[in-house]
Amino acid sequence: MQRPWQLCCADPAPATFIAQVQRLHPDAGAITAQLLWQRGYRDPTQQVPAFLSWRNYSSTSPFEFPEMALALKRLQQAFEKQEKVAIWGDFDTDGVTATAVLWEGLKPVLGAQLVDFYIPNRQFDSHGLSRHGLETLCQKGVSLIITCDTGCTNRAEIAFARTLGIDVIVTDHHTLEATDLGAVALLNPRQCPPEHPLHHLSGVGVAYKFLQAIYSTWSEKTQGYVLESLLDLVAIGLIADLVELRGECRYLAQRGLEKLQMSQTLRPGIAALLQPAARNRVRQREISFSLAPRLNAVSRIEGDVRPLITLLTTKDEREARRLAQRIEQINRERQQRQKEIAKLAHAKVAELDLSTSRVILLTDDSWPLSLLGLVANDLVKTYGRPAILLQTNPETGMAAGSARSDGVVDLYAALQSQRHLFEGFGGHPYAVGFKLKMEHIPLLAAALNQFLAQQEGTATPTPQPLRIDLEVSLEQLNEKLLKELEVLAPFDSTHHPPPRLLVRNVELTEAKENIYGKNQNKRTYVSMQLRDPQGQYTFPAKWWDRSVRDCPQERCDLLIELEQWQNFLSAVIKDLRPSASHVIQPASFQFLMDYRDRPPAASVEGLRVETCPTSRQSWRQWIQRARREQQPLILAYAPPPEQDALKVWQKFLTLCHQANKQGKRLRQEELQACLGIEAATLNSALRLLETLGVKVLYTAGEFWCDWPPEVNPSADTAVALETFTAAIAEENFRRRYFAVAPLQALRETH
Predict the structure, then answer these.
(1) Residue 596: pLDDT above 70?
(2) What is the arithmetic mean of pLDDT over 584-607?
(3) In this predicted structure, which of 69-83, 447-461, 551-565, 640-654 has the lowest mean pLDDT?
(4) The CATH classification of domain 352-456, taken from the options 3.40.50.10540, 3.10.310.30, 2.40.50.140, 1.10.3720.10
(5) Architecture of the CATH domain 5-52+467-585
(6) Which residue has the higher pLDDT, 626 or 562?
(7) Which residues in 115-148 are b (16+ Cβ under 10 Å) and which e?
(8) CB-hemisphere CA count at 13 Å for 624?
C-alpha cells in the first residue's frame, strides 16, 4: 500500500519573527524561521534562543529527580563504611555509554571502592538484573549496585539482591511499573511530568545527571576531573536511543556534539571506530549511521560488550585501533545477517492483506532475537505502521521478539493493554520487547488490531502519511539551504525530525547504478542529476537500494532530504511519484482553540473535546480525528474531579458481579467508559479481581467472570490493590495535566 504524502500548510512566519530568528544565528534565514514557526517554536525571546543554542538554555537541576536525596544518602553510607560498589548496565548503545559514563565519572569519587561493572550477555540474558549476575557480584563483596539504563522493572530481582545483602540504586528511563520497586532509590525521568525538561532523558542522560548531583555534593572528592568531558558519550547515547531531543535532552546533545567537533579531544576509541566512515569529525549523522550501529552490533552478534567500555574509556590509541578493527568485522557480519532476515520479512509481508491489518506481526523459528528490532524498524519505515517480529520455539511453545512504533502509536500502551498475555514485557512508547506463549499470538494480533482501530476510529487502516515540511525549487538546493537546515540540528525521529523537502516537476537524468561497500555488505544506489523543466538548473541526487529501471521516464515530484557526506552535497530521495498523476494532501490539523476556562462559551465550529483526556493515547485519538475530518479541536472541558480509587473499585466489583449473575460478557471498551478509566487501569483492576479467587476469561475485547462461592483476599491482593490505586492516581495526574497544560505543550504532546 503506497503511503500518501502530506504537505504541512501552516501560516507563513511573520516578517518580524523571521528577522528575530536571523539575528539569533548567522546561518539562519527565512526557511529556518518558517520551520521553527510551523513546529511550534514561536517565542523569539526565550523558547527559540534556547532551542537553537545550549548557551541560551538554563540546565535543570539534578535534584529535580524526586528520589535523588535518597540515592545520595545511600552513597554517603557506602563512603563511610568503605563498601564495594558495582555498576549494572545494558548492552545497547545507550546502556553502554551510560555504563562508560558512570565507570569513568565515579572513579574519581569512589576510587578502589568501585570494583566492577556488569552488563548482561545478550546471547544468554535479557535486559535487566538477573539472579546469576547478582550472585556473581555478591561473591566479589559488592553491597551496593548502581544500575544505568535498566532496572525499573526488576522488582523480584531487587528483592533477591536484598537477601544477598546488596542494595540497589536504579537509574533508568524505561516505562515505570505501578508497583513499588524496592530499590533504595529510583532515578527515572518518567517520575517527572511529561512537560518537565528531564522527562525525555535516555539512560545515559540520567546517569550523567546523577553524576552532576554527586559532583556538586562531594566537590572535594572530584577535584581534577571535569565532568563535562563525559558529554561526548552522553550525546552518543542520547542520539542513538532515538529519544525526543527537547529540554535537557537537547541541551546535553548540543553540548556533546560541540565537544565531538573538536578533533584534538576526540576519544581514541571513537576516532578509531569512525575511520571507515569519517575523518575525525563527529556529527549527528556519524552517530546514527556509523557509531551506534557498530556499538550495537557487538551485543547482537557476540553478546559480551565489556570490550566496548574499554574502547570508549581507553587513552591508548593502539588498543583503540585493535578493538575498533574487531568491531568493524562484527558489524559487517551483523549487516549481512540483518539483510537476510529483512529479505525474508518483506516476503512475508507481501503475503499479508495490509488493508485489514493495522499492525505487521511476523513469526519465524530461525530468526535470531537480537536482530529483530532492527528489521522491525525497517518494516515500519517501509510500510508506515507498527511492526512486531517474533522468534518462535516450537519445542518450548514460547515466542520472544521486538516491536517498533511508527512514531504515532504508543506501542507500550497498546501492548500494556494485553499484559495478561505476556511472560515478560518492557520498553517505552516506540520500542518494546516481550515474551509470550505461542498459543497467545493470534489473540495478541486480534487485540492489537482492535486497540488500534479504537485509537484511529476508521474502518479501513491506512499507513501514516509521509510528512513534507516545505516545498522548494531546484534552484534553492545548495549549501546555503543546507546551512539553514543545520541550524535546527540535532533532530530526532518523532518530535523534531529532519526536514523533508518537496521538489516538483523534475526530470531524472544521467542515472547510473553504483555500489557502496564490499562483498556481502554492499548496497546499491542510483546516482543522477535532477533537472528543472527549463533545463536551467541541475542538482545531484541519490536513491538508495534502487536500480536505473526504477527511475520513471516522465517528470516526477520528489520527497528529499539534503545531505552532505564526505564533503559531497546531494539530495537523498525518500520517495517519488509521477507529477502528472500525483495528488498531495494538505495537512488538516492546524490549531487548537482553548475554552477550558469557559466551556459554555465554546460556540465556534469544530470538534469539541468535552471530556478531559486521561492519557497521551486518548489525546492522540482526537488529533488523528481532527486530521481526518479537517477540523480544529475545541477544548471545551472543565477541570475534572479527582477519581476516588475505592469508589471506582467498588463500582467495578458491582458491575462484574452483576454480569456474572446474569451470565453476561463485559466489553472492555464499554466498561472503561462507564468507569472513566484507561485500558491499563482496567487491566490492573482485573488482576486485582483475580487475586480474590475470581477467574477472568478473556476473548478479544471482552471478558467474563467465574465467581467463586466465597471471595477471599490472597497473599497477592495487597500488592494488586496498591497497583490499582497507583494507576488511578496516575490518571488523576494526567487529567490535571490536560486541564492546565499550555497549548504549545498540547501541540507537542501528539
Answers:
(1) yes
(2) 62
(3) 447-461
(4) 3.10.310.30
(5) Beta Barrel (2.40)
(6) 562
(7) eebbbbebeeeebbbbeebbeebbeeebbbbbbb
(8) 20
